Every structure is written in C-alpha cells, then in structure tokens.
Amino acid sequence: MYIYDGKDLERGHGAAEAVPETIDLSLEAANVCVDKTGANPVRPHMIAMNASQSHAIVSFVASGHVLIMDARTRKPIDCIRTSAGAGGARRFTSLSLAGRVLHRRRQPKWQTVRAY
Asked: Which of 24-33, 37-46, 79-88 shows the lowest per-residue confidence on average (mean pLDDT)?
C-alpha cells in the first residue's frame, strides 16, 4: 500500500516527485488475518478512513477479509472475514460490518476513499 502526503500531490508541489510511504500488506497484516481467520487475505481493493482519520480498514476483494489498522502507527489491529466478491454491495457490507465492530469500541463513523 502506498501512502502519499496529500500536500505533495497538490498542483505546483511536484507531484511526480512525491515519495510515498510503503506498507507491505504481505507481512504483519497478513499474519494478523491468518491468526484471526485461518486464511490469507487476497487482493486488497479498497481503503476506508474514519472521520478523525485515526483508523483505516482495508477490504480484500478476493478473500473477503477486512483489515482494521491504526492509522498513526500503521499497525494492524484486527481482521475479520466476510464473503468474497467485487460487487458494491459486498464492499459496503464489509465497510458496515467493520464500522459496527469499531462502533462498539466508540470510534467515529467511517468515510470511504478509493485505493489505487
């Protein structure tokens, strides 16, 4: 996963030279998912951030995993598994389910952003 500072991508700031922070989802994140669900996450597809941007969720389209991460530390917190699939309804099911899990932890609502 590549994370860019938004200011670096604005017009006039040399977006072509912007250097992203890289998070390898095949390492610690995959280990958390295997420990929690017994299966490897496959094909990360979409990222959602909560309103305060303290937490992120990454949905994996092929395996149905939803990874919850601490945005500040970039560390995985939890992983759940839902139905696999690329349809919008399945993605929103994943987002809603993760939102309910975090709601119980008294976290703010999720905002959806696309990952490319």
From this structure: 79-88
